Amino acid sequence: MMDNLTRTSRDRQIVAGMAAVFPPELLLAQDALLRYAARCVPDAWPDVQSILRFAHAYCVNPQELGAMVGIISFRLTPKGKLVWADCQRHPEMVVRTNPGTLSRRVLQAYGCFVATAALVEQARRIH
Questions:
Q1: Is 116 helix (H, G, I), strand (E, B) or coil?
Q2: C-beta separation of 65 from 110 below 8 A
């Protein structure tokens, strides 16, 4: 079992290593998307339409960009419709998502989102 200090240390290492794992364009797209959503999306969090727009503008994979802000996407069947699950607005959908349906890159991006969110939540409790 991992204690809170170990988990916090691991999360910090994950966040610090994001630049080594993800291309600069994806990190720039994430930053721009979050800044845009804070000012222009009604609940101040990215939505699927914004993810698609910013992914196109920055020439990055929309599924990876979405995962970096907690919105994962996958196909229920190989040729099926793309489904988006938003952990901020509908966390129950993300919890029920089989990780086997996600690509390795999407899992990496979502893992970084989870680590970042955990650090932010911890900072909120301290202050």
A1: helix
A2: no
pTM for this model (two decimals): 0.77
Distance CA 112, CA 16 (A): 10
Q: Quick one: pLDDT at residue 28? A: 93
Q: What are the helix (H) ranges across 17-71?
A: 18-21, 24-40, 48-58, 62-68
Tens-digit pLDDT profile for residues 49-101:
999 999 999 999 999 999 999 998 887 777 888 888 887 777 666 556 666 77
Residue in 32, 94, 81, 37 with CA at minimum distance from that of residue 57: 32
Q: Comparing C-alpha atoms, which of 115, 123, 120 is closest to residue 18? A: 115
- Provide the 10 A C-beta neighbour count for residue 14: 19
Sequence spans of domains, the chain: 4-126
Q: To the nearest 5 percent, what fractions of the chain are helix, strand and coil?
A: 65, 10, 25
